[in-house]
């Protein structure tokens, strides 16, 4: 049984919103037909906000379309959108068509020099035994300790260790994801979209 379903949300939402939340996964709703749902635009944005880890639909759009490399960069660019469109009503301000039209006027971001100098892989030593038939690629986070880096999973368990590269920049954690490849015993750096 789910922790909270549409009925548990009922006191918080009116009948129209509750009904639409229950049927949205069954039908594809496009920007053009969204007004027919009777829902505010924020309901359309919920998934994107969760995926991109931001509370701002414009930032989520910029990250999702590669118009910004980091959340902080997306927030800075999104503030320009809100300044430009301050006369719009709150719901219309987050209309995807308006955001798309504005974002199409932006230039594409240039890869920062710190990202382009980053080694694509870092050799590591595995610290745990992994199941032979389990996942071969793990998302890891760097924990710097002196000249070494412990590569930990999101729960904090050390999966691998390695020397900190000379070109290492601590801010890369804000710009990219790191993945441990068990077969090659390397950690790769993958910039956010």
Write structural notes for this entry.
- With 193 residues, the protein is of the alpha+beta class.
- The chain has two domains: 98 residues, no CATH class; 78 residues, no CATH class.
- Helix content is 35%, strand content 19%.
- It is built from nine helices and seven strands; from the N terminus they run ααααααααβββββαββ.
- It has a seven-stranded antiparallel sheet.
- α3 packs across α4 and α4 packs across α5.
- The chain is elongated and about 55 Å long.
- The relative contact order is 0.11.
- The N terminus is likely disordered.
- What sort of overall outline do the alpha carbons produce when their principal axes are compared? elongated
Main β-sheet: number of strands, strand sense, barrel status? Answer: 7 strands, antiparallel
Report the mean per-residue pLDDT as an integer: 76
Residue runs with pLDDT of under 50 for 5 or more positions? 1-14, 17-27, 113-118
Whole-Å distance between the termini? 35 Å
